[in-house]
């Protein structure tokens, strides 16, 4: 069903992350009406269509992380020719830790219309069920498999105040949680969600330390880990900073410069700190 006036469109379709009943009516409609369906795994797409009782007449082509760069030009040309192209991943919304982003970016550069059929999302489902703050969050996806690279990424998130959402393979969850403990501490609150929307859905909420002990027993299924953000830093009092100024002065730094350096480091007003230093000196001279 080509669009009028030869205007093609690329549609990102969110597919169920577990429960097939979560397939929206709009998703079913576009699956039946699209000219081309670009699927992360064509076998999985046909399985979904059969499970939904849909007879697909569109051409189904593969579009995954290993061939996306080579298929971009073909998909773009089809859209330019007026085709409606439905893009689906194996589960959830395409382009979110799944194929799709390079295609969307290229299509927008070419002036091709891109829209979406929203629906299931493992990221948002796990976040909502985690019991952790949801007002601000960051999605980190899959971290590197190598321990050193994974630790580097986690260290960079040490002061992240937003709730953090990660994807992880079931056989690496214990290693991930161990690395998270090293980076954030065993007491940081977190949640591990598995098999979301499926029969054996489970969300375990606890400290990273307790979750790590639990995960050592082995996990199965699709995993999402949600970690609370860093607590807001406690503002240092002026009195607590006086010894730091004294240390710098004793090491040869001029007092005004020492006050400026400490005030900037700890986020206090330079004038307030300077007046406190002078007041302490007067007391010591009495």
What does this structure look like?
This protein is α/β, with parallel strands linked by helices. 42% of the residues lie in helices and 18% in strands. It has 11 helices and 10 strands. The chain has helices at 25-33, 42-51, 68-80, 101-109, 122-129, 147-156, 173-184, 208-215, 238-250, 255-266, 270-285; strands at 9-13, 36-39, 59-62, 84-88, 113-117, 137-142, 163-168, 189-194, 202-207, 223-227. The strands form 2 sheets. The protein has a 5-stranded parallel β-sheet with strand order 3-2-4-1-5, with helices on both faces. A 5-stranded mixed β-sheet has the order 6-7-10-8-9. Helix 6 links the parallel strand 6 (137-142) and strand 7 (163-168). Helix 6 (147-156) packs across helix 7. The radius of gyration is 27 Å and the shape is elongated. The termini are far apart. Keywords: Cytoplasm, Methyltransferase, rRNA processing, S-adenosyl-L-methionine, Transferase. It catalyses: cytidine(1402) in 16S rRNA + S-adenosyl-L-methionine = 2'-O-methylcytidine(1402) in 16S rRNA + S-adenosyl-L-homocysteine + H(+). Residues 15-211 form the Tetrapyrrole methylase domain. Its EC number is 2.1.1.198. Its main location: cytoplasm.
């Amino acid at each position: 069903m080509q669009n009028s006036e030869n205007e093609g469109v690329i549609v990102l379709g969110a597919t169920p992350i577990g429960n097939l009943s979560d397939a929206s009516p709009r998703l079913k409609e576009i699956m039946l009406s699209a000219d081309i369906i670009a699927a992360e795994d064509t076998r999985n797409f046909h399985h979904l269509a059969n499970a939904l009782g849909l007879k697909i007449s569109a051409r189904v082509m593969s579009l995954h992380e290993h061939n996306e760069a080579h298929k971009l030009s073909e998909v773009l040309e089809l859209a330019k020719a007026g085709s409606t192209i439905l893009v689906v991943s194996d589960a959830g919304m395409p382009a979110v830790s799944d194929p799709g982003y390079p295609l969307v970016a290229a299509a927008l550069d070419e002036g091709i219309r891109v829209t979406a059929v929203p629906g299931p999302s493992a990221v948002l489902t796990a976040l909502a069920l985690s019991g952790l703050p949801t007002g601000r969050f960051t999605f980190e996806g899959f971290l590197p498999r190598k321990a050193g690279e994974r630790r580097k990424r986690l260290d960079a998130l040490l002061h992240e105040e937003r709730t953090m959402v990660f994807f992880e393979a079931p056989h690496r969850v214990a290693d991930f949680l161990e690395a998270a403990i090293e980076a954030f501490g065993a007491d940081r609150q977190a949640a591990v969600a598995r098999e979301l929307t499926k029969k054996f859905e489970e969300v375990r909420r606890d400290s990273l330390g307790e979750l790590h002990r639990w995960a050592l027993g082995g996990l199965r299924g699709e995993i999402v880990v949600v970690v609370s953000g860093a607590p807001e830093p406690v503002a240092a009092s002026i009195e607590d900073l006086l010894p730091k100024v004294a240390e710098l002065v004793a090491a040869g730094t001029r007092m005004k410069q020492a006050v400026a350096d400490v005030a900037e480091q700890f986020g206090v007003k330079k004038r307030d700190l300077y007046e406190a230093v002078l007041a302490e000196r007067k007391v010591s001279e009495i």
